[in-house]
Design a protein that fits this description.
single chain, 146 residues, alpha/beta, five-stranded parallel β-sheet, globular, YtoQ family protein, YtoQ_family_protein
């Protein structure tokens, strides 16, 4: 079985690489996709559409351009992994999890125990909650090779 997995969320650590390496080492047939992880490039995604004098409208414009990629890749995926990091609040990741839920798209959350409470609704909609990238890889192995 082959799978398309979208890796959503936190962009400041190498968790995506860890999952990809683990999946490759396990011989899993997975195509991984992700949002733009270059923060500056993401913030500037809509700048080519015209300069905005108010930062709200710059963010609004860029978020709509980013949404083209995000929505398309989530819709095309078989599974989404949503990572919530410790350093920043990832509102976009919570939005992606909600979008998955609305689409009945299976998703896994990946986060530490200390943010269980603020993510209780997000985790309640997930098919699994993992605390490590190794747990994500083990879940993928089960799904693809059981």
């Amino acid at each position: 079985m082959s799978f398309y997995v979208y890796l959503s969320g936190e962009i400041h650590t190498d968790w995506r690489d860890e999952i990809q390496r683990g999946a490759e080492a396990a011989g899993l047939d997975i195509v991984f996709t992700a949002p733009v992880t270059d923060h500056d490039a993401s913030d500037a995604a809509g700048d080519h559409l015209g300069e905005q004098s108010n930062p709200f409208w710059r963010d609004h414009q860029s978020s709509k351009v980013n949404a083209i990629r995000t929505r398309t890749l989530i819709e095309q995926s078989d599974l989404v992994v949503v990572r919530f990091g410790d350093k920043y609040k990832q509102w976009n990741a919570a939005f992606d999890a909600g979008y998955c839920s609305a689409l009945a798209k299976p998703y896994i959350t990946l986060h530490s125990e200390d943010i269980i409470h603020p993510l209780k609704e997000v985790d309640a909609g997930a098919q699994a909650w993992c605390t490590t990238t190794e747990q994500v890889v083990e879940t993928l192995k089960y799904v693809l090779k059981a």
